[in-house]
Amino acid sequence: MYAFYGCTNLVEIGGLDTSQITSASELFHGCKSLRRIGGVLDFSRVTSQIDSTFVACAALEEVTFTGTINVDVAMNGCPKLTLASLLSLLGALAAGVTDKECKLGTKNLAKLSAEQKAIATDKGWSLI
User: Fold this and answer.
1) Distance CA 21, CA 36 (A)
2) Paired residues of 10 in beta bridges
3) Which of 25, 73, 74, 116 is close enough to 51 for a disulfide, judged by CB 3.0 to 4.6 Å?
4) CA distance 90 to 121
């Protein structure tokens, strides 16, 4: 939690091992210059919502997810995400969920085809 909170000059970071964390709250909150998270983020053990993790990360373009995400996710504060980053996130969403939301925002949703959106919706996720 709060590991890089408010690091406004951070542009790129890599080499993070997130496979054992149970909360990603505020992890990158306010990292307004962050463009790339190298390596992969594994939020498989996260039990709290990933809703404040990427707040105000408007420059973020590249991030790769692995593992299985079982909690609500908000990436709507990251409108510059690449298609590859979005597909990585959708691929990591757990299957068979109910009442789970993945907030991408209108700019990111516009980058996805109906077929790509179905990666999440077919698993039971609501895309917002």
Assistant:
1) 20
2) none
3) 74
4) 9
DSSP for residue 117: H
Joined together, the tokens standing for residue 91 give 């691929």
Look at residue 2 in the predicted model and tell me its pLDDT. 78
Of 43, 53, 51, nearest to 22 by C-alpha is 43
What is the tens place of the pLDDT at every residue in 75-117? 999 999 999 999 999 999 999 998 999 999 999 999 999 999 9
User: Whole-angstrom Cα distance, residue 106 to residue 128?
Assistant: 8
Q: Which residues of 3-27 are buried (b: 16+ CB within 10 A; e: fewer)?
A: ebeebeebeebeebebeebebbbbb
DSSP E strand boundaries for the chain: 12-13, 36-37, 41-42, 65-66, 73-74, 100-103, 125-127
